[in-house]
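thoughts on my protein:
***
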Amino acid sequence: MRPQQTPRPHSVPQTRGGDPSAGALAILLAGGKGSRLHELTTAECKPAVFFAGSRRIVDFALANALRSGLKDMIACTQYRPDTLIRHLRGRWAPAFDAAGGGLGIAHGPDVTGHCDGYIGTADAVTRNIAAIDARVPRYVMVMAADHVCQIDFRPMIEAHVASGAEMTVAAHVVPRTSGTEFGILSADASGRATAFVEKPADPPGMDADPAYALASMGIYVFNWPWLRARLLEDAADAGSGHDFGHDILPAAVRTGAVNVWRLTGQGADLRPYWRDVGTLDAYRVTQLDFAGAARPCAMPDSVLPQGNGAQARPFGAMMSGVDPWPKESVILPGGSVARGARVVRAIVAPGAHVPAGLVIGEDAREDARWFRCSAGGTVLITAAMLARREAHVVRPVFGAQRSHSMGAV
């Protein structure tokens, strides 16, 4: 498959008014399947999964872009895109229009002409070179659509410009024990990346504190002419996976072209926050952070014009259940827990209705017979799982409360 190629622009615009974001185009990588969320992504992609009530995971990335002055964006979609595309067009495209920019959607199979669509994160950008060239950006910011975060991208773009690097990668300090889930960077005192390894089995610790590692956040700023050339080189490499983390970033680090920008405090008005919600445990626990009155960051609704979905369904109502149940659990829109049920450390999926008398989360062995149970103790409950359990449980007559299984599932 040959990438789109158009003549390279003869010049790129300078930033206007001292704001580097004015010359930047955002690329949103929103095609992820989210396989570690299992049944939650059977019918829709990970960015479209509900989070904090009727919001979607993707809302945080979109809100960050608008808050940071990134008014032009191309969203690259792929797996199970219908819900996501409706959400982008109905809720967010008007907000980008109102900001004086625009939100374009580039669906992989439509762009490539093949049902497989994009074959890697870098390929998603390569295939849209013509659309990017048409916008004549000075910088291109590439960001993931499936992280829950609050970041002002302007300091990152400013640091990129000041560094003189061709590429800047955002990084966050994480415990070394959890570094296997991320791409891990090393950097010198000036901030230049000196090494990078993708999801290592034995993550290298930081020199200053070996108990911690410097993790890539999957957010990048590039000088567009440099990235354009690298993407075309990568597209011609038959041995490449055409992925930013596996191919573009490691090669750039080896040539000394990468600056590392660490996520740190960004002022009282905007507390930085970043969570990878790629597992059932992380997805559940992160939502609990948002359940109380003191939320860890602003909700994405705050950037939306009134009357354009700004009033999302209250999150507290989705969490409360019937006192004292459920506990440490998330009830997604369209799910419910009946009075008299006991539910602990669970995710109740849309369409799942936990009946009265059912106990979930207190007996790991029993839970595992009917539901999906994570290593961290989260129980995922779907309508299909409840129906399967109901079909295999025979309730004795005369109203007895006991039940027994007629066979293993």
